[in-house]
Amino acid sequence: MSAPTEPVPTPAVVIRIAAGRPVRAVWVNELGGVTFEVGGTEFVKVGDAHLLAAEEPRLRWARRYTLVPEVLAAGPGWLHTARLPGYSAVDPRWADDPQTAARAIGTGLRRLHDALPVADCPFGRPSWVPADAPPADRPVVCHGDPCSPNTLLDDDGAFSGHVDLGDLGVADRWADLAVATMSLDWNFPTGGPGGFQEILLDAYGAAADVDRIAFYRRAWDGDQPAAG
């Protein structure tokens, strides 16, 4: 997921929802989906109908317990939400302060994992988590796509919410932590390989589980290893 580098056509559904308010494309994902900001207070995601249909009920459920966007409306291939306060952890304002971003990501994941009730979660495991994963260190309701852009920070650099919960589901907490720490290397390469992992895990409150981290990173990359 990244900011668009060239003009993006505005779909008719976004124009209708905007009703004359300013519109700008703010994110483009690897599948061609686009997120549009509307009037500075709302967002409309347009893309794969199946993925967005999966995200809508997850947002509605998770919002009962934690800081995620409110769903305003939805339809085939689009999802309209209210804006949460804050800025993505990969916003340019954090480019020179990746330690703050890493800390907020770790804090946010811990709050998410503590807040969402596993026993009441109506969703299965995240789509990329293998059925033969090792026994869980701690089962939680995972974000499912905990890459850096999906954590929001407020003006003071504190965690303020999560976005993009289309793959939310129950799994070992290390499914989220393995990907979140790996994502730091993609988004904040100035720290070198693993440079800010310790900060994130310290904020979360866990020491690195090397074996589980390796397993879930391989799973995320599409290499489905047998449980060991």
Automatic annotation (TrEMBL):
An example Gene Ontology biological process: response to antibiotic
Entry keyword set: Antibiotic resistance, ATP-binding, Kinase, Magnesium, Metal-binding, Nucleotide-binding, Transferase
Domain Aminoglycoside phosphotransferase: 128-216
The UniProt record lists the keyword Transport: no
Residues at the catalytic site: 145 (proton acceptor)
Any one Gene Ontology molecular-function term assigned to this protein's record: kinase activity
The name this protein goes by in its record: Aminoglycoside phosphotransferase APH(3')
